Amino acid sequence: MNAVRQILFKALKGERIEADEGLVLFEKGDLLELGQVANEIRKRLHPDNRITFVIDRNINYTNICTTGCRFCAFFRAPGHSEGYVLGREELHAKIRDTIEQGGTQLLIQGGLNPELQLPYFEEMLRDIKENFNIHIHSFSPPEIVHMAEGAGLSIRETVTRLKAAGLDSIPGGGAEILDDRVRKFISPRKIGWEQWMEVMSTAHHLGMKTTATMMFGSVETLAERMNHLIRVREVQERTGGFTAFIPWSFQPKHTELGGETATGAEYLRTLAISRIILDNVPNIQASWVTQGAKMAQVALRFGANDFGSTMLEENVVRAAGVTNRVPLSEIIDCIRGAGHIPVQRNTLYEPLIEYGGSG
To answer: Based on the structure, what is the number of domains in the chain?
Structure first.
C-alpha cells in the first residue's frame, strides 16, 4: 500500500492525521480518493443525510479601512470619495428585510475605520437587540483588536463588553492564512495569526462560539496551508469553541495582489483535506460565494455538510468581481439534487426547518 493510501486508511479508521501526513495528501493525493474518504468521514459525523444552511445577511457597516490588504478590492482609504458609514435607518431596514425573509442571523463586518471606536459598536449592538430578535454573529478578530487598541483595553475586556452589549458569536473573517510570513506579504498592517487566535480562544473561554475560515490560493505554500489547519485543530482541542470551518479561494480581480484564483479541483482538494484533518471540528461549509452553486453541490461529496448561507447581501467578494447569487430555492434544489435532505439551521447549527425529500 502506498503512502497516500496508508494515510487515507488511517483516516477512515478514525485516527488522527498529522501535519506531515496531511502535506503528503496535498502533494500526492488523488482527488477522487480524497473526496471519497472525506465523504465517508462526513457521513460518520452526520449520518442523518441532512445538509444544513442558514438564512442571513452580510452587512458591511463601513468600507473605510486603514489596513490596506493587498487581496481586498472592497476597502476605501479614509477620505476617499467612495467611503461610507452605514446609517441607523439603513441598517434597520436591512435587518427588517432579513427577518421578513426568514433570516435568523446577522453577519455584520466592516473595515478598520479610525473614526469608529468601541462605544459605537456597543451602541449598535444594544440598539439592534432592543429592536429586533435576531442572532448577531459579527465582527472579525481584526475588528475586535482594533476596538481593543482604540479603547486601551485587553482583548478579554473588549469581548466581554461586546458580549454584554449583545454580540452572540464571532465569525472567522480575517484569518486568511494563519502564518505570519504570508500575512506580512498580503496584509502587512493586519494582526498576526496569534492575535487572531487569541480573540477566538478568548471568546471560547467566555462561552461564545465562533467559526474559522481559510482564504487559500494567494501566496502560501502547501505546508503553510496545512499549518493553518493544524493550528485551528490545536485550539479546538483546548476550547471546543469552533462550530465550523469554511475554506474559500482567493479572488484576485480588482485587487493589488492580483494573480489567479484556485481551480475548482484545488478547491475540492483543500475542502476534502480540511474534513480529513479537522477531526474535532463538527461542520465543514461549502463556499458557493466564491465557487458557485454547482461546485458547492459537488463539495457535498467532498466532505462538506453545510451549504453556508443564503447571504441576502454580500459586498466584499463581489468587489473582487465574483457575483455568484444563490436564492433559497436554488440552495434547496442543489441539496436535494445531490441526494440529501435540506435543513435550515441557526448559527449554532441547531435545526429549524426540514424541507424534506432528496433528489
So the answer is: 1
